[in-house]
Amino acid sequence: MSKLDAALDRFSWALDQLEAGVNRHEIALQTAAAGNSEVAALRADRSRLADELDRMKAHARTLDETAGAVSGRLDEAIAGIRAVLEP
User: Which residue in 11, 30, 38, 76 is a FRET match for 61, CA 20 to 30 A apart?
Assistant: First the structure.
């Protein structure tokens, strides 16, 4: 093998290595982009769920207040009925 052939083989090998490195870098960039997209989607989902949780907590407080008011009225009504029924 001549020196030229050997140099061409080394050059070809170096180009193959460079191409493989570029391909690995592109894959890493694509993976990072996909990861960034997934993180953004998860953050949006978390925000939506936090808002929904806040609404549900407010609704639960309203229901609790309403249940307390209804319970108080029922107690008053029961006391009134007992007062009427007692001799």
Answer: 76
